[in-house]
Amino acid sequence: MKSITIGIIEDNLDFLQSLSGVLVQNPNLNLTTWNSAEAFWASGKSKEWDLLILDIGLPGMSGIDVLKTYHTVESRKSLVISSLQTDDAIFSALRNGASGYIWKSELDSLHDTIQTLLDGGSVISPSIAAKVLLSFRKPQAKADSLGVGVEVLTPRERQILELIVEGDNPHQIGSLFGTTVGTVRQQIKTIYKKLQVNTRVQMLKKARQFGIF
């Protein structure tokens, strides 16, 4: 069988290990990994992959930034595997060329997903499909009426906001991303400033206005 080359951009080393562990079960897959978008581009090998797998919330250049540049060549295929569930992240990824978008908890059918993408199909999680349908039915919040839009946040900041909405504390978020609690708290302060809020209650209210929960 033809060898399949797959590139992975993922900064969470624990998840990268889990992901690689699933993929290496197929002896026909050749994997190359990077822990940042900058490292990926610096490798000078961005044209060689049958499929690029990446997260959205990367340090430095985001996964969305990668997609914008990577898909200037239309034949390229990419799969987003992320825990970021905001509408903004999902639609930005799909608009910028991602062939698929699944959650990090959905690795059981990963080989089937990859084959579907290589065959020219697209794959999104059922809950994402529901979000796409819902987006056609609900009015979009206006940034000028709410003061500021969630789009001012970086992908990582949006991911942290979503985790806060789900009830995670800075210690849990830091553990998930492999960063210090101090770094997470500084990122939360930045989120407060960008959203023009002063309290957690105000932040959650603004998140609700933009459909994050």
Automatic annotation (TrEMBL):
Biological processes annotated in GO: phosphorelay signal transduction system; regulation of DNA-templated transcription
Signal peptide: none
HTH luxR-type domain segment(s): 146-211
A GO molecular-function descriptor: DNA binding
In-chain residues carrying the UniProt-annotated modification 4-aspartylphosphate: 55
Alphabetically ordered keywords of this record: DNA-binding, Phosphoprotein
Entry keyword DNA-binding: yes
PROSITE patterns assigned to the protein according to its UniProt record, in alphabetical order: HTH_LUXR_2 (PS50043), RESPONSE_REGULATORY (PS50110)
InterPro entries: CheY-like_superfamily (IPR011006), Sig_transdc_resp-reg_C-effctor (IPR016032), Sig_transdc_resp-reg_receiver (IPR001789), Tscrpt_reg_LuxR_C (IPR000792), WalR-like (IPR039420)
Residues in Response regulatory domain copies: 5-119
PANTHER family, A to Z: TWO-COMPONENT RESPONSE REGULATOR
Protein name from the UniProt record: Response regulator receiver domain protein
Provenance organism: Leptospira terpstrae serovar Hualin str. LT 11-33 = ATCC 700639
